[in-house]
Every structure is written in structure tokens, then in C-alpha cells.
Amino acid sequence: MRTEARLLIALATPILAAQLAQQALAFVDTVMAGRVSATDLAGVAVGGSIWGPIFLFLYGILLATTPMVAQLYGAGKLAETGPLARRGLVAALPFMLISILLLRNADFIFVRMDVEPQVAFIAAEYLKAISWGMPAMALFFLLRNLSEGLGLVRPSMLIGLASIPVNVAANYIFIYGKLGLPAMGGVGCGWASAISIWFMAGCMLHTIWKLRQYNKTHFFDLEKKSAPGGARQVLKLGLPIGFSLLVEASIFALIALFLAPLGALAVASHQITLNYSSLIFMIPLSLSSAITIRVGHAIGRQRLDRARLVSKTGLSLSSTLALLTAILTLCFAESIASIYTHDRQLIEIAIGLLYLNALYQIPDAFQVGAAAALRGHKDTRVPLFMVVIAYWVIGLPLGYSLALTNFWGTPLGAKGFWISLIVGLSIAALLLGLRLLNVAGKQPAVQN
Is 150 exposed, middle or buried (0-12, 13-18, 19+ CB in 10 A)? Predict the structure, then answer.
């Protein structure tokens, strides 16, 4: 188990760096837009609330290529991985076009949300600008998933890190109007993000073209066809992943909307906790990608015993790391809250939520690890239903009743929702863990 733990950590570390680099792009947008004005910052934030779920849904569809490539690689069918990846791009094409249409016509959403006109204008123009990066985003994630499915994780890390100065420079040019361009404020963040995404896609394409490790994938050999039904298999696996990510993202968006009538302190404390939680989540998320890759390789080699070991080791490692981050969160909750604000009242409220977030981290790490192991087995449909039950059927109604009604006693506000998230995640962890035990006992070729 120690050897497998070392292999998972070695694989997860570059993925973590790539994930943090991706988070840094949003951080740079937020900071640089905030330097212009509060209105520009609000416009970017509102636009991001629309962009985020759309991005995650498309990303989830493309994520199906990772276990499929991993299993082919494990089975010694490297020549089939490139054509499969191309079919994945074809499968994602309709959803990419729909995403572009939604991003370019999001005005009606802001009207219904009664967003302040200037903020709505910035958000709408930001989304129109970033929509030009959608084709590149689909291509980048497809190529990244192809590379990671082969166990080659350093390229996406290096490209992600290289994209940060590109994004900073582009933001500076477009936001403040340099090189003869007009100053665009927050809207410029959208153009800068689109350029950064194209930069990443171009670098990834160049990497796969140049490095000999990718030659045998035949990605650029258009005469090499994938197995029949390749695109259909990508959708069969990818759509449940996309919807799972959408379910998780949308519940946090709904919680923010439910908290809005309770005032700025409730919303701000929730946002602080959510932002910190998203950052910490990069650790189990990166480890989960490594679990998917290693399980896929084992299944491809017909080593079900190895797949079980990978799953067991990955879940133990993920839970241990979550326990450590939970302890650190409990010990330094006040310091963490103070990074975000100097308002003493807000800090006190945020500390209470961060204590709950510490408990949240452990089942969250377990459930994301279990879902990743199931993806390695190419099992995604049943886990989607389990996530829907845990979040929407149990978690959200419980949170609403705890936070905003007298059903359980005095309404708890934001604390009620975070308690319900702990309950929902614990149920998801239990259900997915049981599903993994069931699937791991079957033959390697689990097809939903």
C-alpha cells in the first residue's frame, strides 16, 4: 500500500499544481477587476456565476476520456487512444455550441435576476468575450485528459503555470487599455481569459505534436479511425459526470440565492467559507484524478486486484489528508477569516462556518475519491443518481428547513446550509463507497 500511495502522490502533485494554476486565473481576474471598481468586480463575479456551471458541465463530458484512455493504455492499445480523443471532441461539439449560445445571450438571465444595469452590462459583455475561448477550452481539456490518461501529467502542469503571466499581461492590456486598445474594465477580463485559454490549447497541441511519447497515440493520424461508437461511449460516460458536476455547482449557487434576503453578513460569511473550501478541495480533487488514472490502467491490464488496491489506498490517503486539513482549519479558523476581511462581526460569523467546513472536508474527500475510482471502472450513471439523492433530495431540503424555517427550532441561517452539506456529503460518501465495493467485485469491463 505504501508503494501505491507514493505512486498516487507522484501522479497527483503535478495535477494539483495544474489545478492551482487554473484557480489562479480566476483569482487574477478578481483582483485586477477589483482594482478598477466595485462595479467591475461585481460584473465579473456575476458573469462567473454563469460561466462556472457551463464550464463544469462541458469539462465533465470531456472528463470521460481520461478513464477510457487509461483503460486502453493499460490494455496495451496505445494506438487507439488518439482516435478516441478525436471522437471525444466530436461528441462534445454540440454541447460546446450550445454553451457558446448561452454565454452570448445571457442578458435575459440578468434581467430576471434584477441585476443592477451597469453590473449586468459588464457581466454580459464579459461572457460574450470569454465565449470566444470555448472551442479552445474544449480542445485543451480533451488533450489534457488524453495526456493524463496516459499517465503524463507534467505537460498540463507546466502549461497551466505558463498561462498565469499570459493572463496577467492580457488583463493589464485589456482592462486598462494599453497598446492602443480602449480601456474595457471588467469586460477585459473576459478577453484576457479567452486569450489565455487559446494559449493553453495551442501549447498542449504543440506538445502532443512534438513529444515522441505521444507519437503512438495517432492523434494527428486522421486515417486511423477509432472503434465504432467511440463518440457514443464518451457521451454515455461523460454526460453523467457533467451533470454530477452541475448538480454540485448549482446547489452552492442556490444556497447563495437563499441567503441573500438574510443580509450581507450571511452572504459574505458563506462566500468566505466557500472560497476557502474550493481552494482546499484542490487537494482531494487532484488525488481523485490520479485514482481514476491508476484504476483505469489496472482495469486495462485485467488487474482487478490492483484496481482494488489503488481504490483502497487512494481513499485512505484522501481521508488522511482531509483529516489533516480539517485540523488545520479548526486551529487557524480566525486567521483564515482575517485574510478575507477586517470586519470583526463578519470574522466571528465566518469562524463558525469554517468550523463546520472542517467537518465537511472529510466526507467530501471520501466521496470525490470514491467517484473517481468508479470513473476508473467507467461507472458514472448510477453515481449520478446517488449524488442527486444526496444533494437535492436530502441535502437541499434539509438545509432550507434548518436555515430559513422554524421546523427544527430557531432558523440557523448560513450554518443550517453547511450542516446540511455535511449530511448530504456523508450520505454521498456512504452510497458511493457501497457502489464501489459492488463494482470492484465485478469483471473489469464495467459499462454502466
Answer: buried
